[in-house]
């Protein structure tokens, strides 16, 4: 059998299984998500973007159930535990899916203004000075 084809009879094939429990496992699950991606080199902003991404089902479920403030607090705790300090940007208008697009009527735009730079999540990218 070719290597890349799935064989349901193969006992060594990896299979994901959901376990049901009465215990709330949100806290350790959230800490595990954060620690795993932090150790791969993700920063706090990238981690928050992963929690906002609906394709990361477990992470997004935590954000939907507990809210963004909970996720930010947990990211801060895990980073502090590992000795990695950072500062969240000042609480202004948050970048949510509804506020990702920057729309300005054409009459208000100065001529030949380049479009704003966006990060991979669609939020305005921070200005980097070299």
Explain the overall architecture.
It is built from four helices and no strands. It has 130 residues and is an all-alpha fold. It has a domain at 26-85. α1 (26-39) crosses α4 (68-81), α2 packs antiparallel against α4 (68-81) and α3 packs across α4. The protein is extended. The model has no long low-confidence stretch (mean pLDDT 79).
Itemize the secondary structure elements and their pairings.
Blueprint (H helix, E strand, L loop, with lengths): L25 H14 L4 H9 L4 H10 L1 H14 L49
Helix pairs in contact: 1-4, 2-4, 3-4
Q: Kindly state the percentage of residues in helix.
A: 25-40%
State the end-to-end distance.
54 Å
Helix count equals: 4
Tell how many strands the DSSP assignment holds: 0
Instruction: Provide the structure class.
Output: mainly alpha
Low-pLDDT runs? none
How much of the residues is beta strand, in percent? under 5%
CA-based gyration radius: 20 Å
Task: Please give the largest β-sheet.
Answer: none
Shape: extended
Q: What is this entry, summarized?
A:
The protein has 130 residues and is an all-alpha fold. The protein has a domain at 26-85. It contains four helices and no strands.
Main attributes of the structure:
4 helices; mainly alpha
């Amino acid at each position: 059998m070719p290597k890349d084809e799935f064989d349901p009879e193969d006992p060594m094939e990896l299979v994901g299984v959901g376990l049901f429990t009465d215990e709330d496992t949100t806290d350790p699950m959230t800490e595990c998500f954060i620690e795993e991606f932090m150790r791969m080199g993700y920063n706090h902003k990238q981690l928050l973007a992963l929690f906002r991404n609906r394709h990361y089902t477990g992470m997004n479920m935590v954000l939907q159930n507990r809210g963004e403030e909970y996720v930010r607090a947990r990211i801060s705790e895990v980073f502090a535990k590992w000795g990695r300090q950072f500062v969240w940007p000042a609480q202004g208008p948050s970048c949510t899916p509804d506020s990702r697009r920057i729309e300005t009527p054409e009459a208000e735009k100065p001529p030949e203004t380049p479009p704003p730079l966006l990060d991979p999540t669609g939020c305005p990218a921070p200005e980097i000075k070299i």
